[in-house]
Amino acid sequence: MSLNVPIALLERAEAGPVDDAEFVACVRDSLPYAWQIVSGVAADLHAGGGEFADHTVPPPSEAERGQLLRALASDAIRGGLERHFGVRLAFQNCHRVAAFPPAAVGGERYHAFVSPRGQVLNQSPELRDC
């Protein structure tokens, strides 16, 4: 299961749309490691004002790696995080998370990160089973 959904939120979802803030709070509470990584790269990006910010340290366990996978593989979760933090997220190797300003999405650095070449160049033997 990706999220630990409170009963009240589930009941509201059954009745109609879910508020983005409440959904993001559910993500934060359910996936604390993923939240820590995404909020960190978003804060680094906003503080540094650069083209992107990334986190390259592999998670300490498979449980944390699973949180990143669940957060970034779900369109709804990833979209909620992107809207909340005002960034565009990119993901490589089951652990490398990058945040880009939305305006950078058409740019060279973003395309280099999300390209097949970028993925191949970011491989190493120790990451083959991640």
From TrEMBL:
It comes from the Bacteria. Pfam families: KH_NucS_shadow (PF20704). This is Uncharacterized protein. It comes from Dactylosporangium roseum.
